[in-house]
Amino acid sequence: MSRSTNSRSIVYLVVLGLTAIVWLLRGIGLLTFIPGFVLWVLILLSIGLTLVNGWLETR
Fold first, then answer.
1. CA neighbor of 46 nearest in space, from 16, 10, 9, 6
2. What is the model's pLDDT at position 58?
3. CA 13/CA 44 separation, integer angstroms
4. How far, CA to CA in Å, does 10 sit from each of 20, 26, 27?
5. Within 13 Å of residue 52, how many CA atoms lie on the same side as its CB?
6. Residue 45: which residues within 8 A CB-CB, separation 6 or more?
7. Are the beta carbons of 19 and 42 closer than 8 angstroms?
8. Cα angle at 48 between 42 and 52, to 5 degrees?
9. What is the dihedral of CA 41, 42, 43, 45, to 10 degrees?
10. By the 8 A CB rule, do 12 and 42 touch?
11. Are 40 and 52 in contact (CB under 8 A)?
12. Residue 23 has pLDDT above 60, yes or no
């Protein structure tokens, strides 16, 4: 059980960190070639993982 929780946390932190980095670099103009939907997919994935992780923790 602990290993499952640890791997979920790592995946969540990686997705959240990637989202923050892409958002920051796109905002300052370094990653302007990345379409906006990629950023939205990352944001929605982060929100979805937050909800799933919260749901699994309360189970």
1. 16
2. 82
3. 14
4. 15, 24, 25
5. 11
6. 15, 19
7. yes
8. 145
9. 80
10. no
11. no
12. yes
Q: What is the DSSP string of 4-42?
A: HHHHHHHHHHHHHHHHHHHHHHHHTTTTTTS-HHHHHHH
Write the CB contacts of 43 (distance below 8 Å, at least 6 apart in sequence): 19, 23
Contact 22/39 with Cβ under 8 angstroms?
Answer: yes
Identify the CA nearest to 8 among candidates 58, 59, 57.
57
Which residues make Cβ contacts (< 8 Å) with residue 26, sequence separation at least 6?
A: 32, 34, 39
- The more confidently predicted of residues 56 and 24 is 24
Which two structure tokens, joined as six digits, stand for 26?
A: 């796109």
